[in-house]
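Archive entry. Fields below.
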Amino acid sequence: MSNKSKSKNKNEGKRDFLIVSTYAMAGIGAAAVAWPLIDQMNPAADTLALASTEVDISSLEEGQAITVTWRGKPVFVRHRTPEEIKLAKDVSLDDMRHPETDEERVPNEKFIVLVGVCTHLGCVPLGQKSGDVKGQYGGWFCPCHGSHYDHSGRIRKGPAPTNLEVPSYKFLSNNVIKIG
Amino acid sequence: MSKSKFKNPVVKWIDYRLPIFSFMDHELNHYPTPKNLNYFWNFGSLAGFALVTMIVSGIVLSMNYTAHVDYAFDSVERIMRDVNHGWLIRYIHMNGASFFFIVVYIHIFRGLYYGSYKAPRELLWILGVLILLLMMATAFMGYVLPWGQMSFWGATVITNLFSAIPFVGESIVTWLWGGFSVDNSTLNRFFSLHFVLPFVIVGVVILHLIALHRFGSNNPIGIDVRGTQDTVPFSPYYTIKDLFGLSVFLSFFAAAVFFFPNFMGHPDNYIEANPMVTPAHIVPEWYFLPFYAILRAIPDKLGGVLFMFGAIAVLFVLPWLDRSPVRSSQFRPIFKIFFWILFLDCILLGYLGAMPAEGIYVILSRIATAYYFFHFLILFPLLPYIEKTKPLPISISEPILGGGSTASAFAVREKK
Amino acid sequence: MNRVSSCFFSRNILKLFFSLVIICSSNSSFAAGEKISYPQLNWSFAGILGTFDRTSQQRGLQVYKEVCSGCHGMRLLAYRNLKSIGYNDDEIKAFAAENTVNTINDDGEIVERPARPSDKFVSPYPNDKAARAANGGAYPPDLSLIVKARPDGANYLHALLTGYVEAPAEKNVPDGMYYNKYYSGNLIGMPQPLYDDGVEYADGTKATPYQMAKDVTAFLAWASEPEMEDRKRLGISVMLFLLLLTALSYFAMKQIWAPIKKQ
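PREDICTED_STRUCTURE:
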């Protein structure tokens, strides 16, 4: 017992290093295994592949709106009337919580395309149907917690922090929009 | 007794009220373990690791699996093709089942060789056999879930075993199926049970560990620990040894998962279940083959089922069948020979389980089955009357002092 | 003690291991069942470092499309998956658009639209019964998993596709059946699919039945195991890591146990 303590002292540094690095290696291995287990909950390849949808707007009259599904969420497409366009453009950005011009948000001023999910806590705002409550600013109104959006989908009143999201989309022709 | 072994104030605070840290320190750190354990004692912790691996990978798979006859097969293929790292997780689960059984079978044979089932460890052994039974049920139901041809026909054949029960057999089978054949109801209940049974296994494993820690591990010499000179604390000695064993195990496991993932599987299970067509050769997973061979060796339906379950039932009463007071085969020259015969017999049964049930294979199956039961029911009780065991060393430390090998330890002891 | 135990360990572990290997291999060789043996080809994707041959796979896709897809579907494969055998987005879009899928329009009518990259390969028949009815009762199996679903799949498939020979005089070949020396029972419902120049390869490769069978098998092997290259690549890193961990933990174990062994 006593003669071993001598050699122990001599090799202690080397020994500790070996043992510590062994357990460190094992720890790294365990951490690396965690990644696949976490990543499997991210969208799978087939889910990502469904990321675009095409909308035919040829039958959408002025003042009408349709709701389409994109990535499992509602997307609002509205054919705005000239008054609505005017209201959306002729407004001061100074008082807005999330100031954006209508031109930034709506490339083709007649057709506004929005992700129909309230930026507060994810409810679907009212305002697509003609009889819906549209809120004080005439655009959309979220009934869950009372967020008011204007004709450009901008948050004007209520708890929502940002404007309604504009998805990436493009006009494939005058009548077809590709979302995503 | 020291006041508190913990320096960290939070740990100290918690431990004073809820002594989990003391418990863990006692059971995992200081736990006195015989110092002469060989590598076969690694397989207990490996089995625990395999169980955790199966549960973790299984939970993750269940997040992506659909238990419906129309979608099950495709949802598994979606896991293989589209889910991020899905193929890895699924192959880990699939090969993990095989490796779990390899580890557990070695663990069981170790117990047989070194007499680990003898007093005072009878309950420890019985709990272990119970774990084996639960594992088999879980593995069987898990194999049904991918809804391939082997899944379907395996489920059909194995559930039909219960129809051998007189009078109520047919009703039991209908009840198991929830219908008149293996179908959607069957798949759903198997998924439910496959998910929950592993947690029952965890419960029994905890009991298994409590029973183990009551008297501590057996050891290759099979004599009781006489004092602290015979033991080392579990940590760091057996933690590092278990880590080494785990690395070796994982190397084999990873080789299978990454390079031969379907080696232990069956190609027919990549064909979607078809209740109208039975594949030409249906074979259970390799870990059931010895039992399958026993089932087919008996020409009577009920008899086959009874013998198959009897092959496991006999393990429950093993501690009372073997009357020899000597545990380790190292000191039982005849027992040791028969141990290896039993081992080869089980391998042979496994081989025969994969062969068609005809000609020479049937005859061999019957001989091998007969030997299996002879070994436990006749040889075990009678052997102590015939066998002259070798003298046991006084303590675990002594053969180590004697210079490296048990054989020379005997020489020293006999001179005394 | 240690020497005894580790010697016992290595000897018996080896025994155990080999017995298990024997069980397993006997199991799988039994699975091969019939005594027919197939010529063993030298596949680029065999072995632990093997990878798929992109040009061969692309030719194989052409063979599938022009020859097999008339009867055999590949419902688990999506057009977007073709990216990993070397096609770009536009090519995949065009390839997909040659097929149509049913969809429901805004008026609730079932209409056809061109397939998109996110769609699965369109099967030739709407359902199994239609497939059987069109093929004299024989069901042309879906090919998505065919290489994995047959023992020694790649060699089997190649053998089968090139195994059409004149039936021996004593063999009675009924109408609608064909003689194939590699098919179990020798009578197969599928007529010989591959003939010289059955397709015209863009890269000028001579389209012999042997070559076409090889290409289509390479394509189908990938379709069965699209993850194979990723799997092997990750496997190499994991094995290296584990070898290092095994070595480190072995020496750490020896260090820690040294005082005990010395006693």
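CURATOR_NOTE: The CA atoms of residues 82 and 148 of chain C lie 19 Å apart.
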